[in-house]
């Protein structure tokens, strides 16, 4: 989240009043909003102020940002100070904007809470940062990958915004450089007026527009299904997420044999053998071991992985489906195949599926780490945070 200071606010205000970036973003937003807009984490209210003619509520928790906005807002802009997760709207209404705010999953949760029309996610569409040194991932690219892997349809509009920074003198440039931890020299330009020094910065920006009706109610989802082809890193991803899980099971293939183990153990003997590649599963072993592992009370469960070898293990399948439906936060790895069990799990109202791939696995690793810290109302994220230390 943006951490404001008096100095940072001064720089941001100068950039807003001397540049055109926020006007360009507001112009791109207008076709997607109608009626009331809630701007989550709206900061100093620059975008809200540019949406003239639209009723905008800015939800912001930073005290310094709110102090500025109280005295620098257009008549159509209203401030609601506090945490968007803890505040309660009178009712869900209109569109929701999340501009450079939080994780995508957090945006989706807050959109369902505050709005009933569109979610407009605004993100930088380039690597790096405007003023920091070093490389940083492209947030818009990450969000595209995440929306696609959740099967959430979206519209997109890409623009270029002039987000340059003006300065009165070199002393101000140096202070700005220290503020952003920049050790090199900025490519400054000279121009006429109150701010004779100008740091040009033209940045591509993407607007990702999602109908709130298409957003799953993540807070009500107790089971996260991670579906993907073999070798894309599903188990590695889940293993990091649920490092401290206290229930469920893990499968491991060794030299063509498949073994089932409780968490924290790696026993590759006949007592834990549940299948042989090319020959199928051993139903009685699934029914004995799997049921035993799933009967253990727990607060965070892992099921890695489910596919077709258990197709004849009726009791094990019953227990797996029961686990997918109960309120215990659960992460389940599933193969991209069609079996009656997997179809039943996918259709559970308590389950949400992410389609995991080589292209999006880094995005998902980063996303879940951020979501675990930022979505207290989703029991799965809260449990990941408290048990895994994310």
How do the strands line up in the largest sheet?
A: 15-14-13-12-16-17-11-18
Low-pLDDT sequence parts: none
What is the terminal-to-terminal distance? 17 Å
Task: Look at the structure and give the mean pLDDT.
Answer: 93
Write down the Rg. Answer: 25 Å
Count of helices?
Answer: 13
Q: Which structural class do the helices and strands define?
A: alpha/beta
Oligomer: single chain
Extended strand count: 18
Approximate helicity band: 25-40%
- Report the portion of residues in β strands: 15-25%
The largest pleated sheet is described as:
8 strands, mixed
Shape: elongated
3D structure, described in words:
Strand 16, helix 10 and strand 17 form a beta-alpha-beta unit. The protein contains 13 helices and 18 strands. By secondary structure, the protein is of the alpha/beta class. The strands form 3 sheets. Strands 15-14-13-12-16-17-11-18 form an 8-stranded mixed β-sheet, with helices on both faces. It has a 7-stranded mixed β-sheet with strand order 3-2-1-4-5-10-6, with helices on both faces. The chain has a 3-stranded antiparallel β-sheet with strand order 7-9-8.
Brief rundown of the structure:
By secondary structure, the protein is α/β, with parallel strands linked by helices.
């Amino acid at each position: 989240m943006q951490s404001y200071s008096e100095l940072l606010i001064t720089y941001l205000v100068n950039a807003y009043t001397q540049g055109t970036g926020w006007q360009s973003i507001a112009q791109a937003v207008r076709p997607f909003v109608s009626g009331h807009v809630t701007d989550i984490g709206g900061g100093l209210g620059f975008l809200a102020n540019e949406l003239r003619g639209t009723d905008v509520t800015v939800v912001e928790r930073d005290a310094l940002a709110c102090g500025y906005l109280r005295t620098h807002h257009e008549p159509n802009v209203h401030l609601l100070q506090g945490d968007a997760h803890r505040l309660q709207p009178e009712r869900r209404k209109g569109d929701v904007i999340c501009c450079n705010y939080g994780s995508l999953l957090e945006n989706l949760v807050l959109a369902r809470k505050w709005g009933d029309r569109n979610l407009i996610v605004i993100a930088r569409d380039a690597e790096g940062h405007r003023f920091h040194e070093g490389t940083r991932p492209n947030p818009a690219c990450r969000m595209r990958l995440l929306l696609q892997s959740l099967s959430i349809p979206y519209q997109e509009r890409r623009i270029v915004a002039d987000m340059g920074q003006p300065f009165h003198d070199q002393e101000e440039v140096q202070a700005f450089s220290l503020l952003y931890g920049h050790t090199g020299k900025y490519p400054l330009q000279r121009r006429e007026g109150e701010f004779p020094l100008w740091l040009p910065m033209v940045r591509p920006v993407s607007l990702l527009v999602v109908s709130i009706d298409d957003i799953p109610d993540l807070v009500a989802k107790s089971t996260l299904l991670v579906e993907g082809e073999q070798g894309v890193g599903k188990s590695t991803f889940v293993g990091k997420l649920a490092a401290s899980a206290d229930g469920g099971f893990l499968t491991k293939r060794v030299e063509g044999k498949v073994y089932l183990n409780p968490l924290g153990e790696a026993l590759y003997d006949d007592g834990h053998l549940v299948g042989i590649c090319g020959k199928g599963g051993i139903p009685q072993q699934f029914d004995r071991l799997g049921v035993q592992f799933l009967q253990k009370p727990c607060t965070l469960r892992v099921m890695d992985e489910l596919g077709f070898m258990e197709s004849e293990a009726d009791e094990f399948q019953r227990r797996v489906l029961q686990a997918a439906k109960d309120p215990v936060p659960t992460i389940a790895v599933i193969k991209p195949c069609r079996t009656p069990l997997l179809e039943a799990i996918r259709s559970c109202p308590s389950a949400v599926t992410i389609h995991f791939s080589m292209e999006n696995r880094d995005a998902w690793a980063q996303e879940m780490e951020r979501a675990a810290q930022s979505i207290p109302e989703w029991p799965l994220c809260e449990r990941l945070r408290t048990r895994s230390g994310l």
